[in-house]
Structure formats: C-alpha cells, structure tokens
Write a structure and sequence with these properties.
Strand content: 15-25%
Number of helices: 8
Order of helices and strands: HEHEHEEEEEEHEEHHHH
Shape: globular
Number of strands: 10
Helix content: 25-40%
Radius of gyration: 18 Å
Low-confidence stretches: 204-217
Mean pLDDT: 90
Distance between the termini: 70 Å
Structural class: alpha+beta
Length: 217
C-alpha cells in the first residue's frame, strides 16, 4: 500500500512533455513547459538526464490548473523546508509554489508546477517585472505543446548558473535565433549583470560579445 503522506524526498518519475500535456489537457488555465523540460522539448532531444519535470502557470491560473487534475493525481504544496501538505490543506498565507503533482498509482512525483507572473497581454519576469515579453513570444507552440521560450528559460538559469545549467546553455544558445539571442543578452546585462554568463557579453574581446552591441561594418 502506498503511503498516504508523501515527503519532499519522495522519488520522481517525471512525465514526458506529451504526458504532461495530456495530463493538463482538460485544464482551462494557461500553462506551459518550463525549465529543462522546455529546453529539451524545444531542442527536440534531451540535453541531459532530468530529475523532475516542470510546467509553469500564473498565480491567477494556479488554482484552476490544480483543480482540473484528473483522478489518480493529487497536488501538494510546500510546508517548511522539507515537508509538503495536501493542496487543499495549505495555510491561506503559505507560499503555494512549487506545487508537486503526485501519481497516486505509483506514489512518485510526476510534475512540478511553478508560478510565474503575467498580465493578460504579457509574461513578466518574477524576479524583476521590468523584463517582459508578449505571451506569443514568451510561450511557443512546439509540436502542439505550449513551451516556454528557450531564451526565457536561460534567463531563469542565469542568476547563479550551476554546471548543469552551463550544459543547458551550451546546447541551446547556438540554436537560438538572432532575435532571441539578442533579447537574452540584453536581459542578463540589465537584470543579472553579475552572472558569470554576462562576462562574455560585456567583454569587448570575448567571442560571445553581445550580438546587439557589435559594430556594424
């Protein structure tokens, strides 16, 4: 019999992008693949092994998304550093994200739901709302699945990039369009200027000098 109460360290069996889309198909809420799941799906291949699978939504859409989960899946909110509580039992003043979705058949975590900011017209970077994109630029349709734009996912990773984030950037950055690359470079210079990723953008002798700041001959 599966334990009634999972913990934060409960093992993961992450859903594939298609399985995540099928799980959330009945939801009226806006959602999209995010993090590594978005990068892998956009690229068309896995960059590396992922411990979990992420989607994102907005704070206004979180409750409708959770309530539309089909039978056999349950939602859990964080409770302190190392615990979780059922979504419906979370305190009213609690930080309800990231929400973890549990597959009740296996007892494993299947999906993580992150909360981002946005208006009806635009996505806003939660760490600094000066950084914005229209929804059709921030969330792309890739194979019929709403997918966070790769340049946006890289901005999330740029604050304190880890070696695994470097691997993601090395795989994705060369495939970005000129427009996406320029947006990313401007974003980290203005929002995360102290990121290790911004060094090559700032330096006039680095080969990765910002494309938007290159001299036009």
């Amino acid at each position: 019999m599966l334990p009634a109460q999972p913990i934060a360290d409960t093992p993961w069996e992450p859903l594939s992008p298609r399985a995540a889309a099928d799980l959330l198909a009945a939801s009226p809420a806006r959602w999209w693949l995010s993090g590594g799941a978005a990068l892998d799906h956009w690229l068309g291949r896995p960059i590396r092994e992922r411990e979990d699978a992420d989607v994102s939504t907005t704070s206004a859409e979180l409750a409708p998304l959770v309530r539309a989960l089909p039978s056999g899946y349950s939602a859990w909110a964080p409770h302190g550093e190392d615990d979780v509580v059922p979504w419906d039992e979370a305190p009213g003043d609690a930080d309800l994200q990231p929400v973890r979705v549990r597959d009740e058949r296996t007892g494993a975590w299947a999906l993580k739901v992150n909360v981002e900011d946005g208006t009806d017209r635009a996505w806003l970077y939660r760490r600094d709302p000066r950084l914005q994109l229209p929804w059709d630029r921030a969330v792309l349709e890739v194979g019929g699945i709403p997918t966070g734009a790769p340049e946006v996912q890289l901005v999330w990773k740029a604050l304190r990039p880890r070696p695994q984030d470097d691997a993601d950037k090395d795989a994705v950055f060369p495939e970005l369009s000129d427009e996406a690359r320029a947006w990313f470079e401007k974003a980290i210079l203005s929002i995360h200027p102290h990121s290790t990723w911004s060094i090559h953008v700032r330096s006039p002798i680095a080969p990765a000098k910002a494309s938007w700041n290159r001299r036009k001959d």
